[in-house]
Specification:
Number of strands of chain A: 0
Order of helices and strands of chain A: HHHHHHHH
Shape of chain A: elongated
CATH architecture of the largest domain in chain A: Orthogonal Bundle
Structural class of chain A: mainly alpha
CATH superfamily of the largest domain in chain A: lambda repressor-like DNA-binding domains
Helix content of chain A: 55-70%
Largest sheet of chain A: none
Strand content of chain A: under 5%
CATH class of the largest domain in chain A: Mainly Alpha
Largest interface: A-B, 42 and 42 residues
Radius of gyration of chain A: 18 Å
Distance between the termini of chain A: 40 Å
Oligomer: homodimer
Chain lengths: 116, 116
DNA sequence: AGGATCGTGTACTGTGTAGTACACACTACT
DNA sequence: AGTAGTGTGTACTACACAGTACACGATCCT
């Protein structure tokens, strides 16, 4: 699914039981021209900037990283984490490319529990 | 160190025992105008595109991911790995942010040895 | 019936990206 | 002494990015 159609779906679901989720009102809260948000939601134009996607995700109660991913972007803080130790993290990510979800999850859990 | 100065240092080191590493010849092999490479090496202009950095890294025998990182960029294939399973990898990376190098390396090794 | 709200069509703008093209002065051979 | 090669200054270009501004017709409310 495209970024825009997904945003539209989410917004319209919210709109069902909250009239403040009209395109115009969301655009107002997020700080965009309604015409621009309209074009975004119809995928007439490319997804907006990372900052705008962040505000949109917050207003719609969606996961910021997921929304960014649908826009083909990676959050700036993640980019910085990789860049700081580039060859190291590059290798790790390429190793993890084919690893199943539960393995990646297990690793994240182990690291969180601090057993290094 | 800035991207450009680093490239210049590397190139001049190569130039010491191989006259084919003049700015003009490298530019020729990599497919750039000499004036442009000159501006890049003096950090007068922003680092070039990912593709160009890749060709530069190859010609200079440098690590592609490292050079990209110095340019503030992340390789496209890594971005795709994250984007495919965005919230999952986002969480993992944030967990690993403070982990020491040897811990990250150990994880990469374990994954490579396929014990999941 | 009439104002408020709704989504959208069209035109325009400023900034950044990723370079090319050409001319110039300096140095190094031979 | 001449020519080949070196790095650099300046001007320019094409295209993408990230939007704003305004007008329009349709719908809802009361």
């Amino acid at each position: 699914m495209e970024f825009g159609s997904y945003v539209r779906d989410v917004r319209e679901r919210r709109l069902n039981d909250d009239r403040s989720y009209s395109l115009r009102q969301v655009a107002g809260r997020v700080g965009l021209e309604p015409a621009y948000l309209s074009k975004i939601e119809r995928d007439v134009t490319a997804p907006p900037s990372e900052e705008t996607i962040g505000r949109l995700a917050e207003d719609l109660g969606e996961d910021r990283d997921l929304l960014l991913a649908m826009a083909g972007k990676v959050s700036n803080d993640l980019r910085q984490i990789i860049i700081r130790r580039a060859p190291l993290f590059a290798d790790l990510l390429r190793q993890l490319k084919e690893a199943p979800d539960h393995a990646v999850l297990r690793i994240a859990r182990e690291v969180r529990d601090g057993d290094w």
